Amino acid sequence: MSELLTVADLAAGYGEMQVLHGVALEIHDGEIVALVGSNSAGKTTLLRALSGVIPHTGHVRLSGREIGPLPADRIFALGLVQVPEGRQLFGRMTVHDNLLMGAYRRNDPGGVGPDIERVYALFPVLKDRQRQLAGSLSGGEQQMCAMARALVAKPKLLMIDEMSLGLAPAIVDRLLDVLTGIRDQGVTILLVEQDVFSALQVADRGYVLESGAIVRARGPVFSA
User: Fold this and answer.
1) CB neighbours of 117 closer than 8 A, spacing ≥ 6?
2) pLDDT of residue 149
3) C-alpha–C-alpha distance, residues 52 and 45, integer Å
4) Kind of pairing between the strands at 32-36 and 188-193
5) What is the distance between the alpha carbons of residues 63 and 209, in angstroms, rounded to a whole number?
6) Above pLDDT 70, what percent of the chain?
7) What digits encode the pLDDT tens for the residues 92-105?
8) H, E, C per residue of the chain
9) Residues 6+ apart with CB under 8 A from 121
10) Can you name the residues that pair with 159 across neighbouring β-strands?
11) Contact present, 184 and 32 (Cβ < 8 Å)
12) I want to staple 41 with a disulfide (CB 3.0 to 4.6 A). Which of 21, 22, 37, 129 is the partner?
């Protein structure tokens, strides 16, 4: 498999507070890769750095192209798409309109409708709720909507931050099943989780982030 994302010697933080220290990882096409770590390990900071939301040093390459210096909107347009922690939906907009927001950088309007139908096939409950305000959905349905919105953006790499946060185990299991379906459709996934058990159920490989540094990397995931 070819390398999709390569990160080398990445450091980032907020003001004078450095959070990440020399992070290095790689993700290949067609993988689900887990990044696990405790609260405050630096997982969300890493995603923000990769997405161009916060400044960083080091190297980030997507499909061999250095994207580190690019602004967040250009990185998004190149296919690095994040599902943020807490979903961050447009609560006063319908489910369908939230999905349309995922396509705002696309220049193929004829392809948006079929892609929305594909995500409705992945998440049938969203089709039933498509005219409902996103803010009135259950927590699990909101997570599905956030993931569907990201998929409408046609990501090369889908980065999901704390997918299981606040959700019942049965809902998490359903979402994990959907992740394998997304991967089978050709989307590579970086699953960032505090819930180690959930993440490692579906991951092909994994990294452990601790105090802003990668302390373990194995594949198949953490086998002896």
Assistant:
1) none
2) 98
3) 11
4) parallel
5) 23
6) 97
7) 999 999 999 999 88
8) CCEEEEEEEEEEEECCEEEEEEEEEEEECCCEEEEECCCCCCHHHHHHHHCCCCCEEEEEEECCEECCCCCHHHHHHCCEEEECCCCCCCCCCEHHHHHHHCCCCCCCHHHHHHHHHHHHHHCHHHHHCCCCEHHHCCHHHHHHHHHHHHHHCCCCEEEEECCCCCCCHHHHHHHHHHHHHHHHCCCEEEEEECCHHHHHHHCCEEEEEECCEEEEEECCCCCC
9) none
10) 82, 190
11) no
12) 37
Write out pLDDT tens, residues 1-35.
Answer: 689 999 999 999 999 899 999 999 999 999 999 99
Residue type, 93: M
In the chain, CATH 3.40.50.300 covers 1-79+155-224
CATH number, domain 1-79+155-224 = 3.40.50.300
Tokens of 192: 């960032």
CA atoms lying within 13 Å on the CB side of residue 137: 31
**Residue 113 CA to chain centroid, in angstroms?**
22
In the sheet where 65-66 sits, what is the strand order? Answer: 17-28, 3-14, 56-62, 65-66
The answer to whether 186 and 30 have CB atoms below 8 angstroms apart is yes
- Check whether 224 has a pLDDT greater than 70: no
